[in-house]
Amino acid sequence: MTKFKHIPRPGFGAPRSLRNAALITASALAVAAVSVSASYGVVSTLFPRQSAPATIAATQPNMARVVPEIILSSAPAEAPISVTPLDVAPEPVVANTAPDVPRTAPAPVRPETEVVISSKSVSDIALPPVPEASIEAAPTMAALDDAMPARALAAPAPRPLAETAARPDVFAALTTDDIEARTGATLGYARPDAAPESNTLAYADPDMPTTRPLPRPEAPAIVLAAAETGFTETIPGIRPQPRPQVLRVAAAQPVPMAAPAAAPEATLARSSGGLFARSGSSSCGRTLARAMPRRSGNASGGAAFFAALGALSGSERDAQVINELARGNMPDFLHQLEPVAFRGKDARGADTEIVICVTPDYLALGSDRDFVRVPLGLPAAARIAGQFDMTLPTPHMVDAIYAQADVKLSPAPMTPGPQMSSTTYLLRHNETIQGQLGGRGGLIAGQKKDVVMASRMASAPGRVAIYGWHRSGGSPIQPVSTVHGANYADYSHGIRLVSKTAYLDGRAVSLDDLLGSSRYAYLLNQEGPLPGPVIRTASR
Question: I need a surface site. Which of 60, 116, 117, 265 has the fewest CB within 10 A?
Answer without folding.
Answer: 60
